[in-house]
Amino acid sequence: MLAHILISEIAMSAARVKTYLTSHESTPVLDLPQLVERCMGDLAFAERCLTKFRQQLNADVERLEESVQAGDSFEAARIAHLIKGAAATVAASPLAETASAVENAARQGYSRDADLLTATTNLVEEVRRFTNAVPTFTKNT
Amino acid sequence: MRVLVVEDDWITGQMLTHALESLGYSVTVADDGEEAYRRIRSGEFRLVVSDWEMPGMSGLELCRKIRSRTSAGYVYVILLTSYRGVENIVRGLDAGADDYLTKPFKTDELAMRLRVGERILSLESRDMTIFALAKLAESRDSETGEHLERMREYCRILADELSINPQYTDVVDGEYVAQMYLTSPLHDIGKVGIPDTILLKPGKLTEKEFEIMKEHALIGGRTLESVAERHPEAAYLQMARDIALTHHERIDGTGYPYGLSGDSIPLCGRIAALADVYDALTSKRVYKNAYDHEFAKEYILDQRNKHFDSDIVDAFLSREDDFLSVSLKFQERILDSMTYEAILTTA
Ligand SMILES: [Fe+2]
Ligand SMILES: [Fe+2]
Questions:
Q1: SS3 of A41, please?
Q2: Which fold has domain A2-137?
Q3: Which residues surround ligand 2, an ion (CB under 5 A)?
Q4: Ligand 2 centre and the CA of B151: distance in Å?
């Protein structure tokens, strides 16, 4: 039991270092200890969740951009809300915050509004930062 | 215990399931409110963790729908929400939610909220069972009520005494003593299945009648067994079942319904046996006059290792004074009501 805790501690701090190294800005894309805690210390499960989350994220962002282009702010708000919830669950708070900004802008109801466009651009950027950072540490833990 | 998770986001649903399963729950996920409501209506789930914002039926509407129809058992609903404002908490309470969990969830908070929910559900089934007993008991023999009052006191005294015996400290703790007090009144619940002509007969029962009377242990045991199965979260129901089933077993194997002997009779059944017999010997019943405390004590000592477990006989001896004072306290109450009746008839 103790050995198990120790191993996951080591894995977690190694991963934390790598997250800092691979993300370009100072804020880590994800709070790994928080995610591992939410997965009850099960690293393999945490990794499966991240993989699934990344797949879902790419599809969601694509649909989000389409609905913003099409001026469907209702659909944009719905998708942004989904991204926000899932991102918060996997402890990717910068991503959850940018998604929340898109949701709020879309809820204003003005389609193709400048705020919505800016928020969407920020989200797409954060998604890129996230997808670039995550593969490096999940493979090596 | 089964938990229904209502969550439209797949990842969150999976992570909640994983966490709840690690905590020992068995989990089903419904990804929208309609499906959740259908499952709850089927009676499979009494503990629900639901997302607030979902397409279609929201968590709030789900709560309202659950509360708008009465169901066999209470359904405990925990709402998952990223809103923290007072206004939203009030909205949730108003819709009938029992508790909140903030999103993203924390595992220790999740564990705590579910424990509270389980506890409330078990208290609810406890109240329901005791209430059912009270109704059944008062509908038959008028002396049954007083017997139950004394019986639970005797059981508590014996269990309390065993709790300081080093041999029993692992099993008999404060919780055990409290459960003994709570569940011992259910020991004769099976008497509802015995015909009046036998149950209320003033004279001695014939052999055939006595065989029928003996069935009350089996009837009670089976009834409580089925309740215990439906409420596995309520541990006290298992004790209630054991007491109802085995309070007429004897340590030497000559009792009924199964003729169990020694340690194969659950401890609570052995305790209840002595408490029940002591009360039968010291209180006035339809079919005989009360014997005094000394006579009861003599019988109990004589039946050491025959009818009764020697450790429980010892516990009785150490707490003899407490037994006597309970018995006297209730005798005074009977005398009071007799005086009252005498006044009424002479007036
Ligand atoms: Fe009995
Ligand atoms: Fe009894």
A1: coil
A2: Four Helix Bundle (Hemerythrin (Met), subunit A) (1.20.120)
A3: B 188, 276
A4: 8
